[in-house]
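ESCALATION

Customer reports they have been waiting on this structure for their group meeting. Please prioritize. Original submission:
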Amino acid sequence: MAKTKLSDGLLINMYISGDESALEILVKRHQLKLYRFIYSKVNDREIADDFFQETFIRVINTFKEQNYYNEKGKFLPWVMRIANNLIVDYYRKKSKVTIFRESEECSVFTFIKDESISVEQYFEKENVATQVKQLINKLPSDQSEVLLLRIFHDLSFKEISELTNVSMNTSLGRMRYAITNLKKLAKKNNISLVL
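Update from on-call: job pushed to the front of the queue and completed.
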């Protein structure tokens, strides 16, 4: 059997036993979903790249420290939790803003870049996305969470149920309610949605 067809758990055990190529297969298998998840949180490619690398450094260190894997087929949700924790820590530290006094050598205008787009371009690109995000934020948190994970992060319902620690049926039910409620909110706010 080709290594690429092996389960995550087997690949992890092979990596712990010294097979470096097993980790490479794991990274390739999950990189798109993990990167999308991280990028959706930080909305910056460089920062997302850093978090992606840091997440796998943590994964590798965990494997080397523990010398075993005990997540029982929940590798992607486990890795996503690591990434999420890194992001939360990053924003906690970042929220502690450093205050500086303006002087002739250092002005606030030194840090401002004009990368703006025209008003027309902005509304053309962002208007619908903004309205949909506002509607999603009005949903109950359990419904908005499953909707975001399914549509924007492209996770399966199995992965969502593992990540949120609920049954697959609960995840499916939350998705059904989320779509129903989103349609009602869209109608109420005169927003055209195709769901």
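Sent to customer with the following note: Residues 97-102, 106-118 have pLDDT under 50 and may be disordered.
Escalation resolved.
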